[in-house]
Amino acid sequence: MIPNTGSYRLANARLHASLTPEFGAAFDRDGFGLADIAVADGKISSITAHGRSKAPADAIDLAGRIVLPCFIDCHTHIDKGHIWPRKPNPDGTFMGALNATGADRAARWSAEDVARRMDFSLRSAYAHGTRALRTHLDSVAPQEEISWPVFETMRETWRGRIELQGACLLGIEGVRDRRWFDSLAKRVAAAKGVLGVVTYMVPDLEELLDHVFAQAIQHGLDLDFHADETDDVAAISLKKIAEAALWSGFEGNILVGHCCSLARQPDLDVLDTLDKVAKAGLAVVSLPMCNLYLQDRRGDHTTPRWRGVTLLHEMKARGIPVAVASDNTRDPFYAYGDLDMLEVYRMATRILHFDHPVADWPQAVAATPARVMRLDGFGTLAAGGDADFILFKGRSWTELLSRPESDRIVVRGGRAIDRQLPDYAELDELMVE
Ligand SMILES: [Zn+2]
């Protein structure tokens, strides 16, 4: 359908207002407008309202199919991905995930093991239409010395197909060993990575956060936290991060993931936290599939009674940038998943109510994470931008989100890519117990 010449005209494409700067079309109440898109030399040369001028006879008529910019996945763990067959979660709980992953890491995460699983993950993400991806990298000693060089090689290998970012990952108590943590921060800076930690309610949390911010300022690093991935109402590390950001005068980007406990807290506490999060300029990413899997798992023969996700609507209403992302794939933290951001958006629509109205929620998988990741020109469709987009069969939200859209066409640099997914059997030899 898409000519391999890299120069053509698409007529009658359905674009979403929130991901397309004004091009003169009338948008309907779902935010859609019909457009003609001209592509030349791998770039979008123009986007015009459909019907404004007569499309040339050789234009490809998309008959109202939805076209979205390629996805931006701002929170993943491709160093953990696909270990499930050799290390499943024994009971589906968060502690079960933590312990299983820790044991697998210590025993199995050689450079080759990590590299092959990472590459598998990136091929899946690419085939589904993802253009940029941030992964956390378990950086508990001695894993940081194995995984960061693998990440740096992988980033080079994938440049031009997937823009790869890395953030270190360790429990906040790891910051107590100042010498080790400072050397990790230096290593992350050398790799042009992002400084990340997991926060929970340790007695010295404020002091440790101060040190994390001081290191980020010293090395000019952006920050990325896992915060409050629990139903414990006493978990308020999101608020502590916002306070630390305010009093340190930090000017970089801060992304905070999960924030599950916020949804369980009394309204007045929530309002106070959200005020601080907005004032401090934090962005928040929700991981709906992982939260649904791990949260509210109470033991045998019980049914979960909450969805596990944080308060994205209330955050967005306050101007806090909000995103959704994949998180884990086929590892003890999440038994499923394939780094398909359409699946994430579909699940988010159902779990988080990204509808009635859809409004600008599509930005949560494209334009917003692109801004948080400092990726100029990513996550939107605009004249002069790269011709990196996805052509779906669906012509409305209900059509788009009701089927897997396995036959979507992913266009990169103006050309349709080969969307072959890697075969699970490739990893079999790494899965022998
Ligand atoms: Zn995560």
From TrEMBL:
The keyword tRNA processing does not apply. Pfam families: Amidohydro_3. Its EC number is 3.5.4.1. GO terms for molecular function: cytosine deaminase activity. Keywords: Hydrolase. It is an enzyme of class 3 (hydrolase). The keyword Repressor does not apply. Residues 201-414 form the Amidohydrolase domain. Signal peptide: none annotated. NCBIfam families: PRK07583.1. This is Cytosine deaminase.
